[in-house]
Write a structure and sequence with these properties.
This protein is of the alpha+beta class. It is 32% helix and 26% strand. The protein contains 7 helices and 8 strands; from the N terminus they run βββααβββαβαβααα. Strand 4 (74-83) and strand 5 form a beta hairpin. GO terms for molecular function: nuclease activity.
Length: 205
């Protein structure tokens, strides 16, 4: 396996159902990978990003402390695989051991322990989507910084037919269809899975 460090672009709420996803992006490219996260975990990730520190150790703080005390320390978190929409993550210790984890827990621990996030190259290329500069900026607030490829803008809405197709797939996975954007029909439920293997429309009780 070959792993590449990836940029974490926070939690984003999309679609009529308010699905929450952690957005990962390959540095210097327009390719992103959304991983569906339960709202509870998404809220904690957002809190950690904003600098929240609990007065007393929360469960993830306790786990982080135990990892640092009882192992050789951690060097990174990884996204190792993807099976039918379920992503498998791991914490990598300094001596090369991997500890199985959900992506949501791995993302929280990466904030607490200030660890880089890595992803298997094959997993990213198979599951990621390509978005145009305009869609990256509009929907995710991401500036690509990638020089355009010179494609005639008249070919498609964004200037890149593949970007349009990938973006349509992303929006449909969140239950958003072209007719919704035109105000003609309501969207049906999303099809994508979160890091527990459940559809985004299924909420924990």
């Amino acid at each position: 396996m070959a792993f590449t460090q990836i940029d974490f672009h926070g939690i984003h709420v999309q679609g009529p159902e308010g699905f929450t996803a952690a957005v990962l992006r390959m540095p210097g490219t327009n390719r992103i990978l959304p991983i569906w996260i339960h709202p509870e975990e998404a809220s904690e990730i957002e809190a950690r990003i904003s600098g929240f520190q609990p007065k007393r150790p929360a469960s993830h703080d306790l786990l982080a402390d135990a990892l640092m005390r009882l192992t050789s320390g951690c060097q990174s978190v990884r996204i190792n695989s993807n099976f039918e929409g379920v992503y498998i993550a791991a914490l990598v210790t300094n001596d090369g051991e991997e500890i199985d984890a959900r992506p949501s827990d791995a993302f929280i621990l990466s904030r607490i322990l200030e660890l880089p996030i890595e992803i298997d190259d094959d997993v990213f290329m198979q599951a990621s989507i390509f978005l145009s500069d305009a869609d990256l900026a509009h929907y995710f607030g991401i500036s690509s910084g990638v020089v355009g490829n010179g494609i005639d803008d008249r070919i498609s809405a964004s200037g890149d037919a593949q970007a349009d197709a990938d973006f349509e797939e992303l929006m449909q996975s969140m239950g958003v269809f072209e007719t919704d954007l035109l105000g003609e029909n309501e969207a049906s439920g999303g099809e994508g899975d979160n890091d527990d293997g459940e559809s985004p429309g299924h909420r924990k009780r």
